[in-house]
Amino acid sequence: MNQTQVGLPLVRRAGEPDADELARMLTGLTDLSRYFRFQSAIGTPPRTAVLLRMLCPAGAAFVATRSGTIVGHAMWAWAPGESTAELAAVIAEDEQRRGLGIRMLSTAAADAVASGATRFLFVVSAANDRSIRMIRRRWPDATVERDGTLLTFVTPAHLPDRPKERTDVVDEEVGCLEGGEMAASGELRPVDDVVPAL
Fold first, then answer.
1. CB of 170 within 8 A of CB of 81?
2. Among candidates 125, 96, 123, 120, which has minimal Cα distance to 106?
3. What are the extents of the domains in the chain?
4. Does 43 have pLDDT greater than 80?
5. H/E/C letters for each residue in 79-101?
6. How many Å separate Cα 41 from the centre of its chain?
7. What is the CATH number of domain 8-174?
8. What is the pLDDT of residues 140-179, one digit of tens each?
9. Contact 33, 90 (CB under 8 A)
10. How far is CA 74 from the centre of its chain?
11. What is the model's pTM?
């Protein structure tokens, strides 16, 4: 771990003022990481329309920051289907495989459940083995359909690592968001997970 990774990243709600910093993070991703997240070209630097969809979705967006620098992004957005929320996240290269992605997905999932989501949707490249393993491990009841090079997972809405969500668990996760920034305390545990590429 280098000196810039000593403190825990803070997770907070995202908005339009984060566009420049998010663009910087996305520009620093490898081509493979960008492909797994977007499955298409986003431009270098990313197009403004892409950044605005990420920061102001029809749901909610969150960023993780370390010393004011964005190192992760997660979001949920309403998808076709009754009460279905699509979840997505992307993590800076230096922060991947440290648990930040699943922590951010948990934050987005809790917010989606609090907003009425009863199902989650993930769209993942069939080549993204780590994301596929993470979804199968964290949401084992997910069904999957293949469409060319993409896999679409649908699962009942519950937070990862928990079989079902009690109201007080969801309220605790969402309550943390209402106070602004929070330390993402569980994100540096050793796991072999990356986030779904949507």
1. no
2. 120
3. 8-174
4. no
5. ECCCCEEEEEEEECHHHCCCCHH
6. 19
7. 3.40.630.30
8. 999 999 999 999 999 999 887 544 434 443 444 444 444 4
9. yes
10. 3
11. 0.76
Encoded tokens for 108? 């987005």
Q: According to the model, what pLDDT value does residue 160 have? A: 76
| Residue pointed to by tokens 């495989």 | 97
Q: In terms of DSSP H, where are the helices of the chain?
A: 19-27, 31-38, 48-55, 100-114, 129-138, 167-178
Pair of tokens at residue 128: 């993204």
Alpha-carbon torsion (76, 185, 162, 95), positive or negative: positive
- Region of 99 on the Ramachandran plot (φ > 0 left; ψ -120 to 50 alpha; else beta): left
Give 187 or 128, the one with higher predicted confidence.
128
Burial class (CB in 10 A: 0-12, 13-18, 19+), 1: exposed
Q: What are phi and psi of 4, to 5 degrees?
A: -75, -10
Q: Residues near 20 by Cβ (< 8 Å), separated by ≥ 6?
A: none
Amino acid sitting at position 36: F
Report how far residue 144's alpha carbon sits from residue 151's, in angstroms, rounded to the nearest whole number.
6
